[in-house]
Amino acid sequence: MRLTQTRAVRRGISLLEVMVALTILGTALIGMAEYGRRYARSNANSAMLNNALDLASGRVERVKAERNYTSMDTLATTESGISGYTGYQRVTAIVQTLNAQYAYKTVTVTVTHPAMALPVKKTTAIARF
């Protein structure tokens, strides 16, 4: 007597294959989430740095536009609560240098924000003509 073997056709996937696929997918998703978090933080830092640079540049240009060299010192201020820039502080320092050859003022604008690691500084020299 002859035994006939019939092979059952296997269809679908096993539980082990599903678990391996989910592990690989989960690892990839965790990596993508970390990348997205870092990108969002970098983007926020860039926006704050850009705002600080705008504030510093605007103040330097305002001081440069002052026509009266002697009254320029009145523009040395510390500002907080700047309209449209919540949390930023802007300090304008003006130092006069006088010697036998030169007479000029050095203007330094420093902008800080609690969330920024380092302040933004912009410096220029304005000579008296």
Number of strands: 4
* Largest β sheet strand count, sense and barrel closure: 4 strands, antiparallel
Based on CA atoms alone, the radius of gyration comes out at: 32 Å
| Overall residue-averaged pLDDT value | 89
Shape: rod-shaped
Major β-sheet strand ordering: 1-2-3-4
In whole angstroms, how far apart are the ends? 120 Å
Whole-number count of domains: 1
What would you call the structural class? alpha+beta
Instruction: Count every helix, treating DSSP H or I runs of 4 or more residues as helices.
Output: 1
Poorly predicted residue ranges: none
What is the beta-strand fraction?
A: 25-35%
Share of helix, binned: 25-40%
Element order, helices and strands? Answer: HEEEE
